[in-house]
Amino acid sequence: MKSRLYLGFVVWITACAIGLFTFGTPRSFAQSPDALKKAQNAFDTAQQDYLQGKYDEAAQGFLDAYAARNFPQFLYNAGAAYHMKGKKNSDVVAYGKAVENYKKYLAEDPQATDKPKVEKAIAVLEEEIKRLAAAGVGSGSGSGSGSGAAPPPPSTEVQNLEVKVRGLVVIESEPQNATIYLDDKKKGAFATTPWSGSLDGEHKIIIEKKGFKISESSLSADPSKLLVFKAVMSEEGYLGWVEFQANIEKSEIYMDDKSIGAIGHTPLAQNVKPGKHTFYISSEGYDEYKQEIEILPGQTYTIKADLHGTPIGKINVQGLGIEDATIYVDQQRLCERGPCLKGIPQGDHTVEVTRPGFKSYRRRVNIQAKTETQIKVGLAPMPSRSDAVIAYILAAGFTGGGIYLGLQSKHLHDDLAKEITAGLPPPDTNDPRLLKGKIFSIAADVSFGLGALTALGALYYTFREKGAPSTGLIDVRALALLPQIGPGYAGVGMESHF
């Protein structure tokens, strides 16, 4: 009995010890302070070996870097180095190692943005291995028979694959689990620290964490190097922390002065200086939400905006040359320049598109809620009015001729009247002045008549619809409101169905 008790006691003590060792002692995932430096040195050396065509050394260097800091991109680079060796020498073993490391890379980073490309590379290389094996090619140069024959060239699919090692950007912070914004907070959160991945070009890195001073720096990514960015954030206990939420995702958030522009979109969380602040949350087609808060140091506040508004639909005006056109809705300018995509209340609206030198397009459309009404406008050029100009010139010529002839007829009439008044006998019926005066009078009447008719023609040519009219093709597409859930957010989003 004692032996059983003793044995049970030993087992219990052993179990406690194991439990203490396993569960009581915290597991540390942190690596030594110089681990990153070791990885960086191995990465730089591997890059140089790769550029010099030392692919085995380059692959081993990237694997050494991965052993120091297990960033998945190091595995990809090792695969790329073996890939290049296989491509240069039709090396089956090198192709196999490339496939192995590519697969490890995807296993380490299942959400990799380049996953489809890497999976395609794996499939192509596996087919290449089968092809070379069927041709009797082993590792290294030459064939497996030892004949010394040159290995067959890579297949077209292998030649078309892009092979290159990548640089790496590592963003860390102290403390960790801080929010990373890239270039502008208005774009929303990019990631949380620690983060590693590939970036191109120059970027503004904004790192923010509750209770700590925000960090802002510029970073210029080099595709051939490992770049480490670490932000050491000092505590800011005097700041308050505000979390913004809304039932409409990506609603704009303004603080105090709206003319400065939005500070971001919902959902958002950030530090705010103590004091009285007015926050506005708005989204197109909805009533604005406004809340005034007295921010106290070290306190956390949550603003939840429940936005209400008139159901809206989208109008999307497109077309050739629309960049030089102005779009009006109900005689109010909607867009200074096209293309124009705006939300407007549901109902009947008059849409007008104008462009200098072109016929205007005008149409009454019915905008429905949760729909996008697309109008593809084709503006017709304004036709020439040269025919109207010629008609006006002829009308002026006829009218001027009538005036001249009428004056000549009146001049002859006045001469005859003066002679009669002076006591001279009346002119003889054969007096040429009588016939000439009649001719001038009739010609003047005819000229005035022709002038009037030509003027009417000129007016017709001026106001008649000449040439093809401007046209518009209307297409209505449904916009479905779908429930969307995110960290600290629940609401609806809009999706277009074609």
What's the total number of strands? 23
Number of helices: 9
**What is the terminal-to-terminal distance?**
81 Å
User: Radius of gyration in whole Å, from Cα?
Assistant: 43 Å
Main-sheet strand order equals: 18-15-21-22-23
Secondary structure category: alpha+beta
Helix content: 25-40%
Shape: elongated
Please give the largest β-sheet: 5 strands, mixed
Low-confidence stretches: 1-30, 139-147, 480-498
| Average of per-residue pLDDT values | 81
The fraction of residues assigned to DSSP E strands is: 25-35%
Keywords for this structure?
498 residues; alpha+beta; five-stranded mixed beta sheet; four-stranded antiparallel beta sheet; 9 helices; disordered C terminus
Question: Could you walk me through the main structural features you see in this protein, from its secondary elements to its overall organization?
Answer:
The protein has 498 residues and is α+β, with helices and mostly antiparallel strands. The chain is built from nine helices and 23 strands. The strands form six sheets. A five-stranded mixed beta sheet has the order 18-15-21-22-23, with no helix packed on it. It has a four-stranded antiparallel beta sheet with strand order 3-2-5-6, with no helix packed on it. Strands 10-9-12-13 form a four-stranded antiparallel beta sheet, with no helix packed on it. A hairpin with a 6-residue loop joins β5 (202-208) and β6 (215-220). α8 (386-421) runs antiparallel to α9. The longest helix is centred in the last third of the chain and has 36 residues, at 386-421. It is elongated. The model is unreliable at 1-30, 139-147 and 480-498 (pLDDT under 50).
